[in-house]
Amino acid sequence: MRLNRFNPGNIRVRRGGGGGFPGGGGGKIGCGGLLVVIVAALVFGVDPAQMLGSMEEMQQGSPGQPYGNGGGSVADICNDNQYSYEACSALASLDETWEPVFRAAGIPFEQPELVFYQGGTRSGCGAAQSAMGPFYCPADHGIYIDTSFYDQMARQMGAPGDFARYYVIAHEYGHHIQTLTGISRQIRQLQQQKPQQANSLQVAMELQADCYAGVWAGKNRDRIEPGDLEEGMGAAHAIGDDTLMRNAGRAVVAESFTHGSSAQRMQALRLGLETGDDTQCDRIIG
């Protein structure tokens, strides 16, 4: 996907400070996070149940730290490597695409902050580590990513390509949209009122974020290159809950899905891509 070079003065980016994963805390599982947790369990002996429980506790979060470009200028951070450059370019495009949509709807818009870190860091929602995958923290409006995740996507999930990487950022940006519009808060309230539907509501919210990712791409269709759609669909398939469970040697249990099946994720992404209309994504929530 051909994206314009980012303007350092128009995006919010910083390096994450140090921080680990001491006995709790964590982050919302982001795009593909479940597979990384499973890989961590198999390779590093991490208890996935403990990690997933800690991530769930982080959903509501606490007030974040003041914004700052710790560790260098925006340009320095974004130009650190190919992956960070791509992520910053995607962030700039996402900001430029969604701000007019909010303005037209009369909803206040605020840019999210893209936070790069290695190994572990602290977010406004608590401690985080790269084994959780990319995640969005509603407390500080931060999209957190250890770019080594992109290598895992390509090697372990079979989801290479720049569009697959853009999809990761665009999905987490979708959670930012849900936060600004109040959808995220409404879903959390419904989950408390109807705990028996908590999982299905979580899946709906994740699928809507996939749809929003597709809307961004659909609104920038003139920048899509041959092979991009295949990369996106391949990534959406690779991170479906059923595919992750099979690849981890686990039985597929639909009731335990958190992000949706491969077919559902592909369908949600395609809906956004084909329509370029964010209101179509409301159908997923119902």
From TrEMBL:
GO terms for cellular component: membrane. The chain crosses the membrane at residues 27-46. It is found in: Membrane. InterPro entries: Uncharacterised_pept_Zn_put. The keyword Membrane applies. It comes from Croceibacterium atlanticum. This is Neutral zinc metallopeptidase. It is a single-pass membrane protein. The keyword Cytoplasm does not apply. Keywords: Membrane, Transmembrane, Transmembrane helix.
